[in-house]
Design goal:
Layout lengths: L18 H11 L2 H14 L3 E3 L11 H11 L17 H8 L1 H4 L11 H16 L8 H12 L5 H13 L12 H4 L9 H12 L11 H6 L10 H10 L1 H5 L3 H8 L3 H11 L22 E5 L5 E5 L7 E3 L1 H8 L5 H38 L1 H6 L9 H8 L3 H8 L3 E4 L2 E4 L7 E3 L5 E3 H13 L9 H10 L6 H10 L5 H4 L6
Parallel strand pairs: 2-5
Antiparallel strand pairs: 1-4, 2-3, 5-6, 7-8
Length: 501
């Protein structure tokens, strides 16, 4: 093989995306919260972009004033402003930009705010800050408060170990002690200090919530035996120590043979065991659930057809600063100022148009989805039909990646609730009649069969396959097993009620 260095000519074809197209795709994919952040950042960085308040209207200027301003704009010397940073001539674009107030006056006619209005906005922001919810106590806060109430009874060395143990606990993990006591000892610990660690652990394990700082599930449940009726405690202790795995797999006959308890006694003891919490610190888990604000709303028009309406959302009250436009028109700006103002106005206009394009694309894509899934909104989830993004792309006339970006993290409010747009894209199979059937319908039928089965002889996966086939749904056994596990439906052995024969 010969290796050499030299210059060669090579012809190849590449696709280069213009910055404007890249920005449009990014904005299309953004959720409302992300778009709002993008707008806030642009407002802070770009003085040519301004925003009206919700209560303000864009009709303050009269029609004659708008025409006068537009006529004056035609007299601006544009020759110095039409060359962009890449050396390309943007005369047509910039002329359209300066005269955009004639086409879309809302972008330019931003009302000024009175001092009373500014004071009202400031008061509203102060009220929002005053009403912020206080941070909830963490598991560590809760335990340290209890430790402070008994610290007079604990020597200093043990107290420090209690603090070390508490600091190692994690509410997301249920409050278990996953670190060994030996590892929690300080670097200068003596061989006998492990006794202090054991004493400290005993103190922490006596705190609320019951079962906290347990080293495994058995210890966690044993620490909560005080919740059990006294007559059941011996039997519950036996189940905890020797038969947790048997309970998990519903092997009650084995427990009956090993303990001598009847099936009825085992069931009543098991009911007592269910009072115990395997994750005692779950109440301190972060309970933050992000709020969802629908981008779209589905309504019925007068003809009984479902029509998608898009929410106003962020970006509908943006306009280009009149100050900068006037600065360009009066001819007093230097060449450097003109170049700076031109860049800022162009960036602002790109953002406004990208947001408008996002609205139009999102509405068209959503309407195409609704037209395909009309039966879902009329009859419910069982009527959901198989749908691929390529089908919507063909119907709307865009690339499939555009559809993917449009539905990403977008929500729609419907008469049946709020759904993500991705919810309506589902795979499917073919029934005995040759019709397409969505997997959601198969899952619903599977759940119905399990709910109505004889619990003394629950249906196996093979039997579920046969029953589904009798309903015209041809599904493989491995598919039934996969969906059963995904739906958290136990196996037939685990679903069996041994008290019924």
């Amino acid at each position: 093989m010969k290796i050499s260095f030299g210059q060669h000519l090579q012809q190849k074809q590449t696709q280069t995306l213009a910055p404007r197209m890249i920005q449009s795709m990014e904005i299309l994919q953004m959720a409302q919260a992300e778009l709002q952040d993008r707008i806030e950042r642009e407002l802070a960085e770009n003085g040519a972009l301004e925003r009206t308040e919700e209560e303000a209207t864009s009709g303050d200027a009269s029609e004659s004033e708008r025409k006068t301003d537009a006529d004056e704009a035609n007299d601006v010397d544009q020759k110095e402003l039409v060359i962009d940073e890449d050396g390309q001539n943007n005369a047509d674009d910039f002329e359209r930009l300066l005269n955009l107030d004639r086409e879309i006056p809302d972008h330019f006619d931003g009302p000024s705010l009175s001092s009373n209005r500014l004071q009202e906005i400031g008061d509203r922001q102060n009220d929002m800050i005053a009403n912020v919810i206080d941070r909830a106590d963490t598991l560590q806060d809760y335990l340290l408060d209890q430790l402070a109430s008994v610290k007079s009874q604990i020597d200093a060395k043990t107290l420090r170990m209690c603090e070390r143990i508490i600091s190692s606990l994690n509410a997301e993990d249920g409050g278990y002690l996953r670190t060994s006591l030996q590892d929690l000892l300080p670097a200068d610990a003596q061989p006998g200090d492990i006794e202090y660690a054991n004493d400290a652990l005993a103190w922490v394990q006596e705190m609320e919530p019951e079962g906290v700082a347990a080293r495994d599930l058995k210890e966690c449940l044993q620490l909560q035996l005080g919740k059990i009726d006294e007559e059941f405690r011996p039997a519950v202790r036996v189940l905890i120590n020797d038969h947790l795995e048997d309970l998990q797999h519903n092997r009650l006959p084995h427990i009956q043979k090993s303990t001598g308890l009847s099936i009825d006694q085992i069931n009543r003891t098991w009911e007592q065991l269910r009072r115990l919490d395997p994750k005692p610190a779950r109440a301190f888990e972060s309970g933050f659930v992000p709020s969802v604000k629908p981008d779209l709303e589905l309504v019925l028009d007068e003809d009984g057809k479902y029509v998608v309406q898009i929410e106003e959302g962020p970006g509908r009250n943006l306009y280009i600063s009149n100050f900068y436009r006037k600065r360009l028109e009066n001819g007093q700006a230097t060449a450097e100022e003109k170049e700076y103002i031109k860049r800022k106005i162009t960036a602002a206009q790109w953002l406004i148009e990208s947001i408008e394009q996002r609205r139009n694309t999102l509405r068209r894509v959503a309407q195409a989805i609704v037209d395909h899934q009309t039966r879902f909104f009329e009859f419910g989830p069982e009527s959901l039909e198989p749908l691929k993004m390529q089908q919507i792309a063909d119907r709307v006339g865009v690339h499939v990646t555009t559809v993917s970006r449009a539905v990403d993290d977008k929500w729609m409010e419907t008469p049946r609730g709020i759904f993500p747009l991705r919810r309506f894209f589902v795979g499917g199979t073919t029934n005995a009649a040759g019709d397409d059937v969505a997997w959601d319908k198969i899952r619903n039928e599977l759940q119905k069969l399990v709910d109505h089965e004889d619990k003394s002889r629950p249906l196996s996966d093979d039997e579920l396959v046969k029953l589904l086939k009798s309903k015209g749904l041809n599904v493989a056994r491995r598919t039934v097993t996969k969906y059963r596990k995904k739906m958290q439906i136990p196996s037939s052995r685990q679903r069996r009620d041994w008290s019924k024969k």
